[in-house]
């Protein structure tokens, strides 16, 4: 069994304030015995005004929040998954990047969010993440103290083929740090996370941003831990900052995948023809 902790935050609008906000929660998680501590998307800053945000971004090696959490990992002797830090890319532009930190403070792996949240919601809210960030182009699985992790971020959860690829690469625990909007969070958050767990026979861990932030953004919270059979094994049923603990037994992954061997039974197939008429005619014939 491995004890993990999901940190739920209401990240402020500056880097210094964000680190001051998350650090005590990480210390609380470590004091509770967690060997892996995961934080939400946008752990290092939440600032919707891009004219303020983008000039303030630094590379992952210079970012105040990343450096502070690396130091905490080394001090506390725990692994920390920074669900994401908004950082400047080494080649220019910006990235929404997960950073997995070893217990000695070094960086084990990074993952740049692949799927950009470009939507117009029924509530009138809109988002164009691709206007600020360059999407990643590779899936990332990395070994940790609690098993092999599949790294994803927020909107990625709507693309099940990503999780299937991670599971087939050996991932036993899927990380889904998020800053989910409140309307979509209420409607889809839990059901999507449970579906990703069932489909892959993996644990799904989703630390979340919650509440109304300094920049006016509202996020859903309700951090969640789901077991490979799809049952919820831990939740924060609110949007306040806090820490959620869960115990992971990787034998549950093996049991779920043996009971429903969907990963082993996967088969390649040709996609359907474009347009519905040819399919209808073929069926009639």
Structure write-up:
This protein has a single domain (2-284), classed as Carbon-nitrogen hydrolase (Nitrilase/N-carbamoyl-D-aminoacid amidohydrolase), CATH 3.60.110.10. Helix 1 runs parallel beside helix 3 (64-76). It has helices spanning 15-31, 50-56, 64-76, 160-168, 182-200, 251-259, 277-284, and strands at residues 2-8, 36-38, 79-88, 94-101, 107-112, 118-120, 126-128, 140-144, 147-151, 173-175, 203-206, 210-212, 218-220, 224-226, 232-235, 242-248. Mean pLDDT is 94; it is low at 278-285. It has 285 residues and is an alpha/beta fold. It is 29% helix and 27% strand. Strand 3 (79-88) and strand 4 (94-101) form a beta hairpin. The radius of gyration is 19 Å and the shape is globular. The termini are far apart. The chain has seven helices and 16 strands. The longest helix is centred in the last third of the chain and has 19 residues, at 182-200.
